[in-house]
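Handoff note, outgoing to incoming analyst
You'll be picking up this chain. Sequence as last confirmed:
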Amino acid sequence: MIHFATLLMLIISLQISSLHAQTSAPTTEENHKAQADKLYKEGKYEQAKASYEKAKQLPRKEADDYLIDQIANCDRCIGHLKALEEVAKDPNSLKIALVIYEKILDTNPQDSTIRHKLIENSWQSANQRFRELDFRKAAELFKKASDYPDSPFIHKARELIDSCTIFQDSMIAGFIAPHVD
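Most recent structure output, in case you need it:
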């Protein structure tokens, strides 16, 4: 009976250690990589780059293509954000800012902060162009503001796109003459 109890305890301890080995914490590289991916998706490029570089410093990871590409993507987005800071000093820089936002989203389409800035700035610029009777450009910008499913301007922008088309066609046909001072 004692041998059976000892054998049973041995089997149970082996199963527990086997389960523990299967559920052990991920490696440091996986931790750094997962953390970096999370930061990257949030648009925290400086912090993401630091985590990718930590993962790259681990043994046999110096030439990891994914890590190298992500570090380059972080550098690209950081450069775009620095360009935005410079552009922000110029009051007529909205057009350049929109281009830079699009470049960041080309690199990281999941950056919701930049996406919201692009939507908001497109909406503001479209309304300005609409007031200036530049209906072609206004329609382009309203479309940009409505291209994203999380845009708060989707329905209103689509209505205004239709209005822009009608007004633009009317101006071309000579039915609307813009007010000139």
